[in-house]
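Figure 2 data, in text form.
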Amino acid sequence: MTTRSIPLLLLLALAGCSRKEPSPEFTRASERFNKLYAKELDDAYLDPAMHEVEGLLEKVPADSLDAQAAGALLTRIRDNRTRLEQAASDREKALAAARTPTTLTGVSVTAPLPPPVSATRPVADAGALGPVAPSAGMPIRDFNRLFGDCFEPAGPVEVNGRGPRDSYQMVDSNRCRTAMPGMVNSVVLADSQAVMGVVPKSALQRVQPDAGTSAPPAPPDAGS
């Protein structure tokens, strides 16, 4: 080996021994991420301070010792933020749907209902103890006075041939179910004047608002 080849061999040896350096940006990003997550857990992904962590991770050099770890952490932050934002959006949609009143309709609604009566009509003869359950023709003020604590609004009902009316269903109460067992699976229909009638829930078809008008179910055969 000649002496002239020695410097070249030394240079090649030095180049082969070079190592990737750690990234100070990744170190700072990791520290800030760990502090945020320890304090807020998953809520940290939605914290505006997390954007600073992302900025530091984006500055980690591609040839850094921490490049792969920085990429993994950046993906973790963004994926979890997307997941949490989607969950929040789904909750808002569910709450909005729950606040929207449900419309009830069905062919069996019209037939059982008597014509509306005047609110001045007295409560039907029910003895000294008064009525034991809501009934057609009862003034709405008597319904509210006698049974208002056992019923809650159930949304508007489209009564065939008469337009929308208010409906009420029994609240979740053992006292009310015991006092009026026949009303558990029924709905009270009323307008501003009087109770129009009581129909079973099974006679009504539930449709979502703005879903278009659906065809009412066919009435059961007379022989069934």
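Caption note: The chain has six helices and seven strands.
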